[in-house]
């Protein structure tokens, strides 16, 4: 297997012997080794290039150079696309007027990403579903577009026209080229992200990230504010353990339970439908740990460098989830489609909300869906997944509004409802994301035909027969409080952090 994929790796061949020994593609080996190297480098960066010991200029230079080195090691000359995309958009920021700069940056960044995705998929290597250079470009696109809108908010819009979140994120001065490259291509997030706000990154580089959050109640001691820097050690150890478990599950189960077996003619003909459903759930359960490993390791790398501090819990322990991308338990035990999505790829959901949903004057929901589909790539399976997801979301909302009130009379009924909705949510998620894994139209439609498109038909009947009823204010407040207690909804938590920083300032 490793030797078959060697030709598709455009990066370094230094680790080819390791790739052959462990029987994994070379590009994936390069990616994991570079991330582990970034983790060790992050500890060094935090200890020896601490803001108290060196200047922001040195920290920017080192973070950028290390990021470029990792990109070259993994992707070879394809890493130049990162510089080209960043250079084009920075030129627009400098030379275009502030009134239209953000729109031009959005068009150029997303257009360049789409061009690279189209050429990679349809010109060079269709179906190469592994570590590829467009993955980092997706995160860089998020950063470029977010920063362009934040600069526009800070320099071109009136203060009273901004929302509290936009006031917090607004950038009040044009970044230098070094700051811009460091933000886009630093070694902590060059390979797997996650995205973050420019102000948070600059505060981390300059060493001011801890001060506003130390003005919270938990930072008081003997009537004075305590400015000691919290340690991320416990969170890093916890996240690395999660990475090890996720990687072990993925390597051991993904080959035993491949999703492709769900469309095998012999399997479909000889397996009862109930067992097909169970198998699909197990196969998807074995697929998700790959993302858990990548995103959690990336989060640990940022924490090791000192980035990601997000205030304190009520018990006084520090929180290091400022740029966390997922909450595994809330995903695996989600009892609704929305709860699953709120805890999956959190930073991308925030980017879509801030760049598109909050700003689009006409049909923001459809615009957000279109942007998400374009950003993910050009595989037809992605679009099938998003189209199916729209129907699933509408059906789940209608079902919840009409059925859930009948189960709230007692704790037993509520527990039964939670078990049923958990099972339904997991089946619906697996059914929806199969095309996302299979990528092509033919295999995806073959899968849906083997299930007789049963969930598509069910969603259509539910949406037509169960109108969505307006919620009572009390129910909205109770569900909001329950959501904050249970799952720490990503959007509201992040916006609350912005409000807290504004008050502290």
Count of extended strands: 2
Q: How would a crystallographer describe the biggest sheet?
A: 2 strands, antiparallel
Q: Roughly how many Å apart are the termini?
A: 55 Å
What does the average pLDDT come to? Answer: 86
Lateral arrangement of strands in the main beta sheet: 1-2
Strand content: under 5%
Q: Helix/strand/pairing class, anyone? A: mainly alpha
Radius of gyration: 23 Å
Which bin fits the share of residues in helices?
55-70%
Order of helices and strands, N to C? HHHHHHHHHHEEHHHHHHHHHHHHH
Q: How would the global form be characterised? A: globular
Give a verbal description of the structure:
The structure is a single chain. This protein is 68% helix and 1% strand. The protein has 23 helices and 2 strands. It has helices spanning 2-5, 16-22, 26-48, 56-75, 80-95, 98-124, 134-155, 164-169, 177-185, 198-206, 233-253, 265-270, 273-304, 328-332, 337-342, 346-357, 364-376, 380-403, 411-438, 441-450, 454-465, 473-487, 490-504, and strands spanning 220-221, 224-225. Helix 5 (80-95) runs antiparallel to helix 6 (98-124), helix 6 (98-124) runs antiparallel to helix 7 and helix 11 packs antiparallel against helix 13. It comes from Esox lucius (Northern pike).
């Amino acid at each position: 297997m490793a030797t078959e994929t060697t030709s598709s790796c455009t990066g370094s061949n230094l680790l080819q012997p390791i790739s052959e020994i462990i029987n994994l593609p070379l590009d994936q080996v390069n990616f994991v080794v570079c991330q582990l190297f970034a983790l060790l480098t992050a500890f060094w960066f935090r200890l020896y290039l601490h803001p108290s010991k060196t200047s922001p200029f040195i920290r920017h230079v080192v973070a950028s150079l290390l990021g470029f080195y990792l990109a070259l090691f993994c992707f070879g000359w394809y890493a130049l696309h990162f510089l080209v995309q960043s250079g084009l958009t920075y030129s627009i920021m400098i030379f275009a007027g502030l009134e239209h700069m953000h729109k031009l940056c959005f068009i150029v960044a997303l257009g360049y990403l789409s061009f690279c995705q189209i050429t990679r998929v349809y010109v060079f290597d269709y179906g190469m579903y592994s570590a590829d250079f467009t993955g980092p470009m997706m995160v860089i696109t998020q950063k470029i577009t977010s920063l362009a809108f934040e600069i526009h908010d800070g320099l071109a819009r009136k203060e009273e026209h901004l929302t509290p979140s936009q006031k917090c994120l607004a950038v009040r001065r044009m970044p230098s080229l070094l700051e811009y490259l460091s933000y886009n291509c630093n070694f902590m997030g060059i390979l797997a992200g996650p995205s973050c706000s420019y102000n948070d990154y600059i505060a981390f580089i300059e060493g001011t990230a801890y001060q506003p959050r130390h003005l919270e109640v938990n930072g008081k001691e003997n009537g004075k504010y305590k400015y000691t820097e919290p340690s991320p050690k416990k969170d890093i150890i916890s996240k690395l353990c999660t990475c090890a478990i996720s990687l072990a599950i993925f390597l051991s189960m993904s080959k035993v339970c491949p999703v492709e077996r769900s469309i095998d003619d012999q399997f479909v003909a000889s397996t009862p439908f109930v067992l097909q459903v169970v198998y699909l759930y197990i196969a998807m359960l074995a697929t998700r740990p790959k993302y858990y490993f990548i995103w959690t390791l990336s989060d640990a790398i940022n924490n090791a460098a000192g980035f990601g501090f997000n205030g304190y819990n009520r018990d006084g322990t520090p929180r290091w989830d400022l740029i966390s991308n997922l909450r595994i338990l809330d995903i695996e035990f989600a009892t609704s489609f929305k709860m699953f999505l709120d805890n999956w790829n959190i930073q991308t959901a925030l980017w879509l909300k801030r760049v598109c949903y909050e700003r689009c004057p006409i049909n923001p929901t459809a615009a957000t869906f279109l942007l998400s589909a374009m950003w993910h790539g050009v595989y037809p399976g992605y679009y099938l997944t998003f189209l199916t997801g729209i129907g699933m979301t509408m059906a789940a909302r209608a079902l919840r509004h009409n059925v859930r009130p009948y189960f709230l009379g007692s704790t037993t009924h509520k527990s039964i409802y939670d078990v049923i909705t958990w099972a339904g949510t997991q089946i619906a998620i697996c059914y929806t994301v199969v095309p996302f894994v299979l990528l092509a139209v033919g295999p995806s439609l073959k899968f849906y035909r083997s299930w007789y498109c049963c969930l598509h038909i069910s969603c259509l009947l539910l949406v037509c027969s169960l109108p969505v009823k307006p919620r009572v204010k009390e129910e909205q407040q109770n569900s909001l409080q329950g959501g904050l207690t249970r799952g720490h909804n990503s959007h509201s938590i992040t916006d609350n952090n912005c409000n807290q920083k504004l008050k502290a300032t």
